[in-house]
Amino acid sequence: MLFSYPAVMSQILYIDQYAYQLPTNYSRNIPPGKNTTVYIGVNVNRVSGVDENKEEITLDVFLQVSWEETRLKVPPGMPYIDLPWEFRQLIWTPDLYIWQLQTMRILSVLQEMASLRLYANRTVSVSIGATITIKCEMNFVLYPLDVQNCAIDFSSYKYTREDVRFEWREVAPWFGLAGEQRREFRLPKYVVTFVTDKSKHIRNFGEGEHSAARLQIKLSRELRGYLLESYLPSSLFVIISWGSFCVIPEIVPGRMVLLVTTLLSLVTMFDTVSTNSPDALELKCIEVWLISCTIFVFLALLEYFVVLFGIRYDKSWSRRRQDLRRAASAVQLAPTLHINHTQRLSTPVSGTPQGGVFSPQLSVEDEGLKQQFSHQTIQRDSPILDTIPGDTSGSFLVRFAAMADRGVMFCGAQHGALDKFALMVFPICFFLFTIIYWTTYLSEAHRAMPD
């Protein structure tokens, strides 16, 4: 309840038997003098909470505003006098404007926690205990490596810096239960630090430049929880997927269950983290990590599909491949067979009768030809198709088919050649990715921090 002007005056006419009244020529609309300095002091009692979705910080603070008022004086022999809170309507007070302020509520128990005091050196001091909510612009691209910095400016709304200047003044510090000054506050997710910026700041709006006193709020995250809840499990899932390379490819259920279960676990973890983390315009740091881990497991599953295809190709089409290569060998050896057949017609055949049946004897050239033909038809992996004479137009396609054939045979080899290769390549790639990831994002987080 606000008192009227006469009621207020009646309460302050007599203070400890001393008569006190405002000067007759006093005007509450005029500052005490040119270039009046207003001192700001803030003690943070508690950080009530940080709302990432609304980008707000709620604080319990003790705010102290003081300035020199040469037109007022205290009775002789008194160091100060406490004036009623309603008396602020009768004297000049700075039109304090707090940038980024959303709401402010003065604390009260039996009465409001607010005081107005006039000192013997003609200084007016206003102290308020309040709960304030500050709007802070946050960027969560580096989440959870992000460091949020909020600047709160205390300035005048209508007085320019030629009329009123704002500066910081240290007030009695707030001590914690252990007797140490509270410089930072630890929350479940954040470490909140407050720093008063003593440099001069100017706000340009309205009719000119306005002086401002700035309070810096720094919010850094507790990274330990994110390492244990997200980074460590996802890394273990990727490492477990490498165990599938040691499982025999023919054991399809065991290897498939291992890879599919790991993949689904990472997808579920990514969905949970995306739902519980604050929104950002780009992919967040932790989302990049989880997506990369999911890709590594998916590639391990894709590698197993390639191995299964190679095994199926090796078993189903091996006979057809042998027939094709035997036909290619026959085409290659046809001129030699024709020459040998002509020589055989002009050469008498020697032999011995055995049981009424004449058995011819092969010459040395025929034996060598037989061995050569047998050798080229038995070698199932020899690239005979690459040496077919007279097929110059399709030589590129033939080479490509031969290379693809060798690749599929390598993937489907019974001794697990591709699995051995993947067991060596996958850990190296993941190790390099980890180094690049942490180096890049830690440097970005360090660059985003204010000087």
Automatic annotation (TrEMBL):
<feature type="domain" description="Neurotransmitter-gated ion-channel transmembrane">
    <location>
        <begin position="231"/>
        <end position="350"/>
    </location>
</feature>
<dbReference type="InterPro" id="IPR038050">
    <property type="entry name" value="Neuro_actylchol_rec"/>
</dbReference>
<dbReference type="InterPro" id="IPR006202">
    <property type="entry name" value="Neur_chan_lig-bd"/>
</dbReference>
<dbReference type="InterPro" id="IPR006028">
    <property type="entry name" value="GABAA/Glycine_rcpt"/>
</dbReference>
<keyword id="KW-0812">Transmembrane</keyword>
<dbReference type="Pfam" id="PF02931">
    <property type="entry name" value="Neur_chan_LBD"/>
</dbReference>
<feature type="transmembrane region" description="Helical">
    <location>
        <begin position="231"/>
        <end position="249"/>
    </location>
</feature>
<feature type="transmembrane region" description="Helical">
    <location>
        <begin position="288"/>
        <end position="311"/>
    </location>
</feature>
<protein>
    <recommendedName>
        <fullName>Glycine receptor subunit alpha-4-like</fullName>
    </recommendedName>
</protein>
<dbReference type="InterPro" id="IPR006029">
    <property type="entry name" value="Neurotrans-gated_channel_TM"/>
</dbReference>
<dbReference type="GO" id="GO:0099095">
    <property type="term" value="F:ligand-gated monoatomic anion channel activity"/>
</dbReference>
<keyword id="KW-0472">Membrane</keyword>
<keyword id="KW-0407">Ion channel</keyword>
<keyword id="KW-0813">Transport</keyword>
<dbReference type="GO" id="GO:0005230">
    <property type="term" value="F:extracellular ligand-gated monoatomic ion channel activity"/>
</dbReference>
<keyword id="KW-0406">Ion transport</keyword>
<dbReference type="Pfam" id="PF02932">
    <property type="entry name" value="Neur_chan_memb"/>
</dbReference>
<dbReference type="GO" id="GO:0005254">
    <property type="term" value="F:chloride channel activity"/>
</dbReference>
<comment type="similarity">
    <text>Belongs to the ligand-gated ion channel (TC 1.A.9) family.</text>
</comment>
<feature type="transmembrane region" description="Helical">
    <location>
        <begin position="421"/>
        <end position="441"/>
    </location>
</feature>
<keyword id="KW-1133">Transmembrane helix</keyword>
<feature type="transmembrane region" description="Helical">
    <location>
        <begin position="256"/>
        <end position="276"/>
    </location>
</feature>
<feature type="domain" description="Neurotransmitter-gated ion-channel ligand-binding">
    <location>
        <begin position="21"/>
        <end position="200"/>
    </location>
</feature>
<dbReference type="InterPro" id="IPR036734">
    <property type="entry name" value="Neur_chan_lig-bd_sf"/>
</dbReference>
<dbReference type="GO" id="GO:0005886">
    <property type="term" value="C:plasma membrane"/>
</dbReference>
<dbReference type="GO" id="GO:0004888">
    <property type="term" value="F:transmembrane signaling receptor activity"/>
</dbReference>
<keyword id="KW-0732">Signal</keyword>
<dbReference type="InterPro" id="IPR006201">
    <property type="entry name" value="Neur_channel"/>
</dbReference>
<keyword id="KW-1003">Cell membrane</keyword>
<dbReference type="InterPro" id="IPR018000">
    <property type="entry name" value="Neurotransmitter_ion_chnl_CS"/>
</dbReference>
<dbReference type="InterPro" id="IPR036719">
    <property type="entry name" value="Neuro-gated_channel_TM_sf"/>
</dbReference>
